Automatic annotation (TrEMBL):
SUPFAM superfamilies reported for this sequence: Cupredoxins
UniProt source species: Tetracentron sinense
Protein name per Swiss-Prot or TrEMBL: L-ascorbate oxidase homolog
Matching CDD domains: CuRO_1_AAO_like_1 (cd13846)
Matches recorded under Pfam families: Cu-oxidase, Cu-oxidase_2, Cu-oxidase_3
Length: 538
């Protein structure tokens, strides 16, 4: 606390000069992060990874709702680099989203200072590189937003708070991975699953006390199931939603998702296995960590707790039990349930079908037949400077159509304050995980086969939770409702990085003709300029 106040005093003046868009009364937090290569040996062979300030995974960003983050990112890699803040809503501020449609990548030996506010959110999030396949080499970290002092959270303060970044991992260098994708191949099957960059992590606590485990899937491809030997997990938060607090023996976490559970150390003092094992994958990769009771002298023993053997049905059923606690508040004092999303009639329905076409003989991925390719100029800059020929609105249909897939820089137009229904239709045999930048959304239904309007009867229109990443099961659909209250150029993408990299993404341009700082902030004065915007001034 003292250290925060001090920072605020030292930096307050500076900040007022340079940041006019963030509210002065909210605290400022300053960071300088340097991105370098380093060598670690998580799987017995030394390999090149991406470090932030010398750390792998990167530093944990622990902030409070409404904090102003001023983060200078210095790129010492040999390739352009960007971080994106997964699930941070960036209200009115897609300028800071850190994806290639909104930001020029930071060139080697150069820097960019992100300025954003963690507005109206409490919960478990993460950041990771959005450029090339950098995410396969690290550069990711936890981003936890804590409640402001006067905002209650619906659970007692835990005795400790653990962040677990879990994901599939390759020994292969990230450059080799993106080069092989460029040549038209698939990613190979991963070599392992790491927990916080290791295969031997350990978490300790006192018997009788309760700890929070914040679990995120930072992997590239594969869902995992998470469980702790002999312990039940009480689900309390999912990507900023406070949930009905059910107990679970194990939880499925899909690529790009985060959940927070409370675990009471209510067993005899010894060490217990923590297990993450892949789901819906050709082979099952399993990694363990240790839950250590402080008074324990007994190492882990016994068989690993078994994961679910049923696949889709089990997982879909579990997903439907993740619900909003309607009387609990989130980042605001009023209860989450006071927003009656189920009573609003959507203005339209968008159906997004993923596919895995070959285009020019190369493996690509597409949404409604369009396989996204990055423009040389960020779409946000093209929009701001009125540079023609970078993208066109409606370059992607809002319903699936028949015909061959093609490459394009696809942008879908939407009006500010529309309330829309989006159906993710997965006619492939693999899991999907979809993410929308700038928003959270209600996940109101999961079902098998081809979605039809009659499926609306099965929607949860009462206590579905909001989140930023939704899974879609093989040959199934998932429906979300989104309130488009955040103007900007927002990336809608597969959270699975091979698919994202090879085209399963597009941008949603949420816009209104009224030019107003009330709806959207202006271009930041330090915005990097590249592509056809070169030579223009902010
Ligand atoms: C790079 O860092 C310097 C301070 O070290 C800062 O003044 C400058 O604004 C940063 N550049 C960008 C584009 O943010
Ligand atoms: C919902 O939240 C309220 C308010 O914090 C709490 O008292 C209640 O126990 C919670 N209910 C469930 C089912 O989690």
């Amino acid at each position: 606390m003292v250290h925060r106040v001090l920072l605020h005093l030292i930096c307050g003046v500076l900040a007022c000069l340079s940041v006019s868009l963030v509210k002065a009364e909210d605290p400022y937090r300053y960071y300088t992060w340097t991105v370098t290569y380093g060598t670690i040996t998580p799987l017995g062979v030394p390999q090149q990874v991406i470090l932030i300030n010398g750390q792998f995974p990167g530093p944990r960003l622990d902030v409070v709702t409404n904090d102003n983050i001023i983060l200078n990112l210095i790129n010492k890699l040999d390739q352009p680099f960007l971080l994106t803040w997964n699930g941070i809503k960036q209200r009115k501020n897609s300028w800071q989203d850190g994806v290639l449609g909104t930001n020029c990548p930071i060139p080697p030996n150069s820097n960019y200072t992100y300025k954003f506010q963690t507005k109206d959110q409490i919960g478990t999030f993460m950041y990771f590189p959005s450029t090339l396949m950098h995410r396969a080499a690290g550069g990711f970290g936890g981003l936890n937003i804590y409640a402001r002092p006067r905002i209650p959270v619906p659970y007692p303060d835990p005795a400790g708070d653990f962040t677990l970044l879990i994901g599939d991992w390759y020994k292969i260098n990230h450059k080799t991975l993106h080069q092989s994708l460029d040549l038209g191949s698939h990613l190979p099957f991963p070599d392992a699953v790491l927990i916080n960059g290791q295969i031997h992590s350990s978490f300790s606590g006192d018997q009788g006390k309760t700890y929070m485990f914040r679990i995120s899937n930072v992997g590239l491809l594969i869902s995992f199931n998470f469980r702790i030997q002999g312990h039940k997990m009480k689900l309390v938060e999912v990507e900023g939603s406070h949930t009905v607090q059910n107990f679970y023996d194990s939880l499925d976490v899909h690529v790009g998702q985060s959940v927070a559970v409370l675990v009471t150390l209510d067993q005899p003092p010894k060490d217990y296995y923590i297990v993450a094992s892949t789901r819906f994958s050709r082979r099952v990769l399993t990694t363990t960590a240790v839950l250590h009771y402080d008074k324990s002298h007994n190492p882990v023993s016994g068989p690993l707790p078994a994961g679910p053997t049923y696949q889709i049905h089990w997982s879909m059923k579990q997903a439907r039990t993740f619900r909003w606690n309607l009387t609990a508040n989130a980042a605001r004092p009023n209860p989450q349930g006071s927003f009656h999303y189920g009573k609003i009639t959507p203005s339209r329905t968008i159906v997004l079908a993923n596919s895995a076409p070959l285009i020019n003989g190369k493996q690509r991925y597409a949404v409604n037949r369009v396989s996204y390719i990055n423009a040389d100029t960020p779409l946000k800059l093209a929009d701001y400077f009125n540079i023609p020929g970078i993208f066109s609105l409606n370059s992607i249909e809002s319903l699936p159509t028949d015909g061959p897939a093609f490459l394009a820089t696809s942008v879908m137009a939407a009006s500010l304050h529309e309330f829309i229904e989006i159906v993710f239709q997965n006619n492939e045999k693999t899991m999907q995980s979809w993410h929308v930048d700038g928003y959270d959304f209600w996940v109101i239904g999961y079902g098998r086969g081809e979605w039809a309007p009659a499926n609306r009867k099965s929607y949860n229109l009462v206590d579905a939770l909001t989140r930023h990443t939704a899974q879609v099961y093989p040959n199934s659909w998932t429906t979300i409702l989104v309130s488009l209250d955040n103007q900007g150029m927002w990336n809608l993408r597969s959270a699975m990085w091979e698919r994202q990299y090879l085209g399963q993404q597009f941008y949603l341009r949420v816009w209104t003709p009224d030019h107003s700082l009330y709806n959207e902030y202006d271009i930041p004065s330090n915005a990097l300029i590249c592509g056809k915007a070169k030579g223009r001034h902010t």
